[in-house]
Amino acid sequence: MIKFTSLFKKVPILTLMAEELHEAQVNLLISQTGLEYSKSMVDYHRARIDRLKKSMEEATKKQE
User: Is residue 56 domain-resident?
Assistant: First the structure.
């Protein structure tokens, strides 16, 4: 059972620093995941644009 007075106990500074470090590491991983996803979407759209341009050029040549 937690005593009422233990709720107001000071948390050691190293504990707070460790918690903040962990939070920063988690946030970094989340950001890196988003970055990887964004980079792959950029590659996907570039490839899509290249494919569509090539298809349009071929279609234009056939019409001539």
Answer: yes
